[in-house]
User: What shape does this take?
Amino acid sequence: MDSTSRYAAPRLPVDLVAHAVWVPTGAGPDGGRTVFVTERSRRRVAALILPVVLLGLVLVITYASGAWLVAPLVAALAVAGAVADYHRGGRAGFYRLEDDGRIGEFLGRQNPGLSRHRRVRAASAWS
Assistant: This one.
């Protein structure tokens, strides 16, 4: 891996988790490196609640009769959607990655058009 794709992990704030880094694939005005981060605490909450909701969903589908199936199914899906929205909230999103490894400009929660970039797993980029 070349030095332009290396990612300085110590510069990331403690409460954020990097999932992937995108580096430009060629020369041109494609911008710099981009990183996708989520908040560590929101990820932990989602990791605890989502399996419980999914287990409840499986139990409802397995044991509920047809007439009682719709309401718990809709409720479980609504809770799962709320947990997913919570996980992606806060400071989660795409950021420009500065040359010194710090996160820079917030680019938004949606993919900012990274088709001309190469994705690098954040864990492998730390080495």
